[in-house]
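Dear colleague,

Following up on Tuesday's group meeting, I ran the structure prediction for the two-component complex that the binding team flagged. I've pasted the input sequences exactly as they went in, so you can double-check that nothing got truncated or mislabelled along the way. The structure tokens for the whole assembly follow below. Feel free to forward this to whoever is handling the docking comparison.

Inputs:
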Amino acid sequence: MISFVTTNKGKFVEAKKIAEKFSIEIRWVNLEYPEIQGESLEEVAYFSIKFLSKEIDDMFFIEDSGLFINSLKGFPGIYSSYVFKTIGNEGILKLMEGVKDRSAYFKAVVAFYDRSEIHTFIGITEGRIANEIRGDSGFGFDPIFEYNGRTFAEMGEGKNEVSHRRKALEKFFSWLTKNF
Amino acid sequence: MISFVTTNKGKFVEAKKIAEKFSIEIRWVNLEYPEIQGESLEEVAYFSIKFLSKEIDDMFFIEDSGLFINSLKGFPGIYSSYVFKTIGNEGILKLMEGVKDRSAYFKAVVAFYDRSEIHTFIGITEGRIANEIRGDSGFGFDPIFEYNGRTFAEMGEGKNEVSHRRKALEKFFSWLTKNF
């Protein structure tokens, strides 16, 4: 069985549903682990995997994601969760005042350790920063990330159909069925 | 001899000058090390020290610092260098538009490993976020950090007399003379 290491129960439940479509069973390991201040989600994930490989005996994967705003040089990127907790959606909207290029993307990285190698799977969903906060569902930057005219927070369950995390997880599970 | 692990030559030169006043000699170790995404400068430093303790054989110290803006819940804090590289001084000024409480502080942490324990020394310099970018000296957020009416970037060498880093280093070297 493959373990998903995350302290976020919601993420585990979402991943479990997607895994079932591939007839894959996953187990939840609720464990905190260090993340470094890296240059990319991939670099952060590699470091965390190396740390966790000493703590966990079987095959496992982790997932991390971030919002990357092109006109802000990728900010908040890998620090999305910290930036959300401090300046929040209001802060991002303020930074985007008067900015023409509002393009942005959510990126997710799934990193899987098969006890000999690390394999990464990327999911990207492109959109734009909305002009205002809209919608009640989801979490984090969902209310300001617009995809096809609606924010992620306005899409309810529909978000899960097109989300960066789903794309990365599907790539991973699809690869798993062929390789394990 | 005690090693200062930093990739920043300027920091080493500054520390060496201060150390000399305490008749302490320090050596430069130009080595990159991982920093975690922690809750505080202290937590980040502890982790880095643990990592470095396996790489370096003698006593050593590291230094890290950040700008903490009270009305932004401490943002950019431990991520100051990333935030500077992305949204920069302009981004901070934008976030502070219309904000009444412009108080902020620079904080430095020196963490020293004596091969058995980690000792930390804190330096804090309080000021406020200026209304505009002013001054040419210094680096990073210096042009928007106002101390007694002038920004750090307007103070030239005078900044080094009152800086958070100097305060932390002086506390450390003073402690060293009594304990080693």
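The first strand of chain B starts at residue 2 and ends at 5.

Cheers,
M.
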